[in-house]
Amino acid sequence: MISMFYTVVALACIAFCIGIEADVNVAEKPQEEINKSEQLFRKLFKQRRAEQLDAVKGLVALSSYEKQYKMVNVILDKVFSVIQNSRVLLESSGYAAGISSFPRDETVLDALANILENTALFADIMLHLPDISQKVLAANYEWQVLFQWSISFANQTQLLDKQTVKLLHLANMELNATERDPDYENPYRKKEEKYQFQHEQKISSKKRKKVKKRGPRLSVGEL
């Protein structure tokens, strides 16, 4: 889940610092650099989100419910591991969402981007595969708590575009972590229910076959 683009952001910060000539506006330069770095960060975040959405579509396209369940379990294990590690790093750095200025340190940028990206990724998975996601979360209470923290943190950073803010809100409603809007409807749920129905039918069919099987029977000559 960890992207390589954060280095680009850090290098951009350095580039802005090189060759700056002293003038009457020299005190304003650091803020200008931060603004440019933040704009680049937002742009690259959107690009990363497009890549993630393609990955989620591939997950949804898997041929069986069992494969989807296993993959979601594996992905979420990695997602929440990254979020937790990044949270520890940010808190130790003193960065406070919505209060601190945009970070210029590459390590802090990495941690910030990791939280935003992985929070949005799970929100996508939650909406596209809600039943599977909720089953996995139900078995991992710490992940439930961490996801609520990451949503709150991500919104406080004020670095998300409107589409991602809406995505996180929809995921929260799908989880019933916040009151649902009167007209709320998850458009992706029907497709998942189709896969789950096929999965249950397959299990039911296997059970019926087992019931039909009988033990050894005496032949006519043995009677």
TrEMBL record:
Signal peptide positions (record): 1-22
Pfam families found in the cross-reference section: ERK-JNK_inhib
Keyword Signal: yes
Listed Basic and acidic residues bias regions: 180-203
UniProt keywords, alphabetically: Signal
UniProt xrefs under PANTHER family: COILED-COIL DOMAIN-CONTAINING PROTEIN 134 (PTHR14735)
Protein name from the UniProt record: Coiled-coil domain-containing protein
Organism: Gryllus longicercus
Taxonomic classification: Eukaryota, Metazoa, Ecdysozoa, Arthropoda, Hexapoda
